[in-house]
């Protein structure tokens, strides 16, 4: 194994809830209206300190997308996914952007978003759910 280099983000940031590694800046949030299996998710223009998994096609609420899961570089926890290709013309804006699942990260104030398992999550928006 090589030496692990982490980027320290300057400003308010979201971090991995397990190891507190910085993942993205608040200023890089594109949308807070995304959804995933576990609740809220945020779309970011850029993220840091992640590794990218294998690309795969996924049928999401907004159509077919080629995506790859992203993992915290320090602890290896899956924290979201990145959009490689959007197959629908009106979804092209997502390409090159990443989604962080809110329950897998700590907010800029250090808060965590917890999902109660007995609560059924219903997605009513137009954004993606994996």
From TrEMBL:
Protein name in UniProt: Protein yippee-like
InterPro entries: Yippee, Yippee/Mis18/Cereblon, Yippee_fam
The organism of origin for this protein: Helianthus annuus
Assigned keywords, A-Z: Metal-binding, Zinc
Example GO molecular function: metal ion binding
Any Gene Ontology CC annotation: ubiquitin ligase complex
Domain Yippee: 12-109
Pfam families noted in UniProt: Yippee-Mis18 (PF03226)
UniProt key word Zinc: yes
PROSITE patterns referenced in this protein's UniProt entry, alphabetically: YIPPEE
Keyword Phosphoprotein: no
Residues spanning the signal sequence: none
Similarity field: Belongs to the yippee family.
């Amino acid at each position: 194994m090589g030496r692990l280099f982490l980027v320290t983000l300057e400003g308010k940031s979201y971090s991995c809830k397990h190891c507190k590694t910085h993942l993205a800046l608040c200023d890089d949030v594109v949308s807070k209206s995304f959804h995933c299996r576990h609740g809220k998710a945020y779309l970011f223009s850029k993220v840091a300190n992640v590794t990218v998994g294998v690309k795969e096609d996924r049928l999401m609420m907004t159509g077919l997308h080629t995506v790859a899961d992203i993992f915290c570089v320090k602890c290896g926890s899956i924290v979201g996914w990145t959009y490689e290709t959007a197959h629908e013309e009106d979804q092209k804006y997502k390409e090159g952007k990443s989604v962080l699942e809110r329950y897998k990260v700590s907010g800029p104030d250090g808060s965590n978003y917890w999902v109660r398992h007995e609560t059924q999550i219903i997605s009513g928006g137009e954004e993606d759910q994996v």
